[in-house]
Design a protein that fits this description.
452 residues, alpha+beta, Beta-lactamase, Serine Threonine Protein Phosphatase 5, Tetratricopeptide repeat, 2 domains, 6-stranded antiparallel β-sheet, 19 helices, disordered N terminus
């Protein structure tokens, strides 16, 4: 028995030695392969078109590009493709604000009306910088205006004029009492940065963050600038892609006008562990969550971890802007970073992010699922809506784990059919959604809208 155990032990040691002496082999490579398989499937199913980077213990273990940065010229995405970040911009704005706080040029309890003399005094005297940073100001978001995208978003405005016209409406609630995500607040923070420094937001961004860190592939996006390796923004349709609507990039401003690469965002992530940009004292303030677990430009919460008795610090933020969706996630204790930058409009990056994090934690993850809406749409075009309803029931019975049968899928399909003037088909799809989700209020609302 002793001899057999010794033989087994030597075989085990030999096997481990072989694994770790094989050039390039490591547990990280196994994770990298699984991440690549996951993201390749998402791309195959038309759910991801962009670049991804994953780091663990502060080291990059995976980076890659999928699909095209420019579909008209077949230019592929890669780790140095520049994507519009959307609201990931907010974390850079909050850093600039906290740097001014550390330099004692600003306090988080300073009032908006005192910082911007041109702002209306009645409401501005009640709003603090802290409220702007945490989406608790009560000021309505300009992107929530009913006519913003249709009538306003294409036109340039000077900062002061835009503030007066679109960021100065009456409160939706008393400052500090509620959380409501708000682009106006971060636009106002950009205006405050300019007022205090006497420089443009873009200048301060370069001088205080981008240049010190060597983030040469990150900046403020200007439509007129010839920017090498810039991704074009697209919107996915059920059967193709189309160019996204034009947006004047002066309007997202300090709330959403930056571009970057997955590699530059890794540089940013690493800098946040040190004190080159901001001391630990003020970083602690910046990452302190308030209402709805939102801190200064970041969502911050605790999650369970495999190797920790205490929970892990999960810090993240997403972004969405015409033709782009983005997500950055940091888990501090394990120095994990996941960056997903996509240039085909809205997609479920949170689902992909969850899969990657489960791979890193050696947990089972859900595989990507095909869009049932895309499948049904093709059947409606090639046959009719009755055939698609029959197909839905058949696939749900025979392949329940292969397709995404969520409420949102049929809802999106119904509205697409309305846009294409296929009203009777849309009504049948909405009725199917009511049948599938009888407890959901939105399915009835959508059906009623189609009838009206």
């Amino acid at each position: 028995m002793k001899s057999k155990l010794n033989t087994f032990s030597w075989l085990l040691v030999f096997t481990l030695l072989v694994l770790f002496l094989i050039p390039g082999y490591s547990p990280a490579n196994d994770k990298s392969q699984k991440i690549d398989e996951l993201m390749t499937t998402y791309h195959k199913y038309r759910l991801f078109n962009g670049s991804v980077l994953v780091a663990e213990q502060g080291k990059i273990i995976y980076k890659n590009g999928f699909g095209f940065a420019n579909m008209e010229w077949d230019i592929p995405n890669d780790p140095i493709t520049k994507f519009r970040l959307g609201s990931i911009t907010k974390q850079f704005t909050s850093m600039l604000i906290m740097q001014l706080v550390e330099m004692e040029k600003l306090r988080v309890d300073d009032k908006l009306a005192d910082l911007l003399p041109y702002y209306r005094e009645d409401t501005g005297k009640q709003v603090m910088v802290h409220h702007l940073l945490t989406h608790t100001s009560g000021i309505p978001s300009y992107t929530g205006l009913p006519n913003f995208f249709a009538e306003i978003s294409r036109n340039p405005y000077p900062v002061e004029d835009f503030v007066k016209k679109f960021c100065s409406n009456d409160f939706e609630f008393e400052p500090g009492t509620k959380f409501k995500y708000n682009n106006s607040g971060y636009f106002l923070l950009g205006a405050i940065i300019e007022k205090i420094t006497g420089k443009t937001y873009e200048q301060v961004l370069h001088e205080n963050i981008l240049d010190p860190l060597g983030m040469k592939n990150t900046g403020y996006d200007h439509h007129k600038t010839i920017l090498k390796k810039r991704a074009t923004g697209y919107e996915k349709t059920f059967d193709s892609f189309q160019n996204s609507a034009y947006l004047d990039m002066g309007l997202p401003y300090a709330a959403g006008s930056l571009y970057s690469t997955v590699e530059d965002l890794y540089t940013w992530d690493q800098a946040l562990y040190g004190e080159k940009l901001l001391s630990n004292k003020y970083k602690k303030i910046m990452f302190q969550p308030f209402l709805k677990k939102y801190a200064y430009g970041w969502g911050v919460r605790k999650v369970a971890g495999n190797n920790h008795t205490d929970s892990l610090t999960f810090i993240s933020h997403g972004g969405g802007i015409n033709g782009f969706s983005t997500l950055i996630t940091r888990i501090i204790e394990d120095k994990i970073l996941v960056v997903l930058l996509n240039n085909t409009g809205g997609t479920n990056l949170n689902e992909m992010n969850d899969g990657i994090l489960k791979i890193l934690n050696n947990k089972p993850y859900n595989p990507p699922k095909l869009s049932i809406a895309e499948t049904l749409y093709k059947t409606i075009i090639e046959k009719d809506v009755q055939a698609s309803v029959k197909q839905y029931h058949q696939l749900k019975k025979e392949k329940p784990g292969h397709f995404n049968f969520s409420e949102a899928e049929l809802n999106q399909l119904g509205y697409t059919l309305i846009q294409k003037k296929k009203m009777s088909d849309a009504i049948e799809i909405f009725k199917l959604n009511v049948e599938a989700f009888p407890e959901a209020f939105n399915v009835y609302d959508s059906l009623g809208e189609a009838y009206s």
